[in-house]
Amino acid sequence: MSMKRTNVYADPEDLAIIKEAAKRRGVSEAEIIRQGIHLAAMANRVWDEPLFSRTFEGTGRTPGKRRVRETVADAVRRESGTGNAA
């Protein structure tokens, strides 16, 4: 993966924590900072598709474990066109 150099300003206390963590983990400070940047990027990403694209009809009450399993098994059977759900 190619990388691009950038400069950022950081709190000295945060940098000290990163330095300690890098030493403890045996990795570079830059690696920890890259991981932090990646986490921040993913946390703020806007996805093209919604996380949940389906809605389910129901009573508005939380179903029990057995009912959830039955509903999921029924949906798998319908989508796969088989009589048995795995």
Report on the structure:
With 86 residues, the chain is mostly helical. The protein has three helices and no strands. Helix 1 crosses helix 2. The longest helix has 16 residues. It is elongated and about 60 Å long. The mean pLDDT is 88.
Low-confidence stretches: none
Give the oligomeric state.
single chain
Instruction: Indicate the percent of residues in helices.
Output: 40-55%
Distance between the termini: 39 Å
Q: Main β-sheet: number of strands, strand sense, barrel status? A: none
Mean model confidence by pLDDT: 88
Shape: elongated
> DSSP helix count?
3
> In sequence order, what are the helices and strands, one letter per element?
HHH
Instruction: Label the structural class.
Output: mainly alpha
Topology record:
Elements: H1 12-25, H2 29-43, H3 65-80
Short description:
Helices cover 52% and strands 0% of the residues. It has helices spanning 12-25, 29-43, 65-80.
Keywords:
3 helices; 86 residues; mainly alpha
